[in-house]
Amino acid sequence: MLIKRVAVSNSASIALKSCFLILFSVLIFLNINAPTVFSLLYVKAALFLLCCFISVLVYFSERSVHLSRDIVIVHLIFTILLTPSAFMGIVGSTPGISNQIQVYIFWPFVHLMLIAMFKDAKLNDSIIKLQLISSYFMGVFGTLYVFVELGFLNSNAIFDSILGFFGRGDEGATSNSGYVEFNLPILTSAGYTAPFFIAYFLMGGYKRPINWIMGILIIVAVILSGRRALWLVVAISPILTIFSSILVGKFNKIFTLRSIFIYSAAIVPVLYVSLPIVNKLELNSASIYQQLTSSYTESDLTTSGGIRKQQVNVLITEWQDSPIIGNGLGAVASLVRSDGVPWSYEAYYYALLFQGGLITFFAAVIFICFIFQRLYIIGRYRGDYKLAITYFVSLTTYLLFGATNPYLARFDGFWVFLFPLILINKDYLTKRNKYNG
């Protein structure tokens, strides 16, 4: 009878995990590829809650929680340090307090429930494939979109339907002043997916022919995006990959003479495809340089760079009124950027300092340093060093990418921390099992 109950319990657990994997995959794919599509907001929230519900059922079925104590402690420290700023926001009835409590307190604890599900190798492998597929999707979809918008390709009903689902940019794609720019929600995540792919490619992904094709499409999509911050993070991704491999003592294992030759050869097809596009769209070094250097230096308040510069000045000035605990989560400065979400600013890190003060900023630094420190340990001493380096590169670039827009100020933007935390938790479980065994 006992054996029969165990068998039934195991079967139920396997079925629940399969269901969880499907829902989780859909959720993460939407978070990565449609991050700012408002029509999908409640769909994502429902998927989150369904995944949590299934994880609770699995916990009761297995009667154990597979979660690193250190990860829980860091989340608790983060929440405790945020409490004074959250209290300030509640007392002051700031416009964005409800939203910010969800983003910074509620959803991170939801993530803990999801992280604990990834103790099986099958589930861990699936999220790596999911990130890779999302990188492919960004390259293919982004390139097709801009080619259609600029008249290089003809649209069709299927493409228009997909485009409508993932959110068509309000301004479409334009080619002027020596550069191209197109507005598409998927680019919000490109600061993670493109560097992730580049690091993955350098870590041995070049061995698959499809990655050469997708790599070209991803680079083309990045060039055509007109996003200054995206150009920057993609450009430094190979440098970060090399630096991190040296840091963890794995450079000689990864960058052999054969691989260096292959990487050098990879430049040829990229240039072959990119240069005709550059010439066709009249991209030039002067306009690209102006784009890269104007994010926070422009004085014209009608441009994005000028607006960010104005935001920085206002946010820093008003932060000084309450430097320790800030003006309250969800607070709004005298400068309002958006009537719909007045607490949101492109100068995200300055807004975080203004709203949460030094204590919240310190909490964020502790949380991020914890992730980087554990990735370093895994990269230096464990077998998953390639994945650790890939996450180090993609998370670093996304944090840099987030300096120009509030990508991390949404509940569906915190997924970038979910992936490295899953790896960190897996490492903890492996050590625990080895010790117990």
Overall average pLDDT: 80
How many beta strands in the DSSP annotation? Answer: 2
C-alpha geometry = globular
Give a quick account of the main beta sheet: strands, pairing sense, barrel closure: 2 strands, antiparallel
Oligomer status: single chain
Q: How much helix, percentage-wise, in residues?
A: over 70%
Total domain count: 3
Low-confidence stretches: 1-8
**SSE string, helix = H, strand = E?**
HHHHHHEEHHHHHHHHHH
Total helical segments: 16
Structural class computed from helices and strand pairing: mainly alpha
The first-to-last residue Cα distance is: 28 Å
How large is the share of residues in beta strands?
A: under 5%
Strand order of the largest sheet: 1-2
Task: Write a compact overview of the structure shown.
This protein is mostly helical and 437 residues long. The protein has 16 helices and 2 strands.
Layout: helices, strands, pairs:
Layout: H1 2-33, H2 41-62, H3 69-91, H4 97-115, H5 121-149, H6 157-166, E1 173-176, E2 179-182, H7 190-202, H8 209-225, H9 228-247, H10 251-254, H11 257-280, H12 285-293, H13 304-319, H14 348-381, H15 385-401, H16 415-436
Antiparallel strand pairs: 1-2
Report on this model:
By secondary structure, this protein is mostly helical. The protein folds into 3 domains: 1-64; 71-117 and 319-437, no CATH class; 126-235 and 254-295, no CATH class. Helices cover 71% and strands 2% of the residues. The chain has 16 helices and 2 strands. It has a two-stranded antiparallel ribbon. Strand 1 and strand 2 form a beta hairpin. It is globular and about 60 Å long. The two termini are 28 Å apart. Residues 1-8 have low confidence and may be disordered. The chain crosses the membrane at residues 12-32, 38-60, 72-95, 101-118, 130-148, 182-202, 209-224, 230-248, 260-278, 347-372, 384-401, 407-424. Keywords: Membrane, Transmembrane, Transmembrane helix.
